[in-house]
Design goal:
This protein has 200 residues and is mainly α. Helix content is 76%, strand content 0%. It has two domains: 59 residues, Arc Repressor Mutant, subunit A; 129 residues, Tetracycline Repressor, domain 2, CATH 1.10.357.10. It has ten helices and no strands. The chain starts with a helix and ends with a helix.
């Protein structure tokens, strides 16, 4: 190994140590989730791979579910916006394809599956998850649907929250079952099917 290579690695380690402890921990957790999934993620491994003391980890995140929630929210935050294209079909396709991309192409997918499993064991984690990302995403979709009703693109008598449940439920079911592709074709077909039942 050349001295230049050694110096380069030394610089990389120094730069990593200079990052704030929470950022190093999130980065390490993300790496572990990508490699080994939720079951392979432990606070001990995060501490070992990030160089962050376990006491510091637990001060920020009392459980690995809380750590995963922050990871998921960080990734999801990039997708959480109201597209407002002027067309309800385009808006919904944007939202559903964003969720599909999030679940299949980022570490958020592994975090999400883990959070669902954790919620069955610990109802408090479910409440926290719903209070943050899930409710925010529902509010964006709710806004899209209500705007479409005002624009007379959808019937005024549709149950907005039921439509949201249908879209979210179908996406989550396919993610968890893995019985068929979760991709753009699925997202576009789902939106088209829902709108056939809701259109004026």
């Amino acid at each position: 190994m050349t001295s230049a290579t050694l110096e380069g690695r030394k610089a990389e380690r120094s730069a990593a140590k200079a990052r704030p402890a929470p950022r190093r921990a999130l980065s390490a957790a993300s790496d572990i989730l990508e490699r080994d999934g939720y079951t392979g993620l432990t606070m001990e491994r995060v501490a070992a791979e990030s160089g962050v003391a376990k006491t510091t980890l637990y001060r920020h995140w009392p459980t690995k579910a809380a750590l995963c929630m922050d990871l998921y929210l960080e990734e999801a935050g990039r997708e959480l916006r109201d597209p407002d294209t002027g067309d309800v079909a385009s808006d919904l396709r944007h939202i559903v394809n964003g969720v599909v991309r999030l679940q299949t192409q980022t570490v958020a997918g592994q975090a999400f599956v883990g959070l669902i499993a954790e919620a069955q064991i610990n109802p408090a984690s479910r409440a926290a998850f719903l209070a943050e990302f899930a409710e925010k995403r529902r509010e964006i979709t709710r806004r899209v649907l209500r705007r479409a009703i005002e624009r007379r693109q959808l019937r005024a008598d549709i149950d907005v929250d039921l439509v949201i449940d249908i879209i979210g439920g179908a996406t989550t079911f396919r993610l968890l079952q893995g019985h068929a592709p979760l991709n753009r074709k699925f997202a576009d077909s789902l939106v088209a099917l829902v709108l056939r039942g809701a259109a004026r």
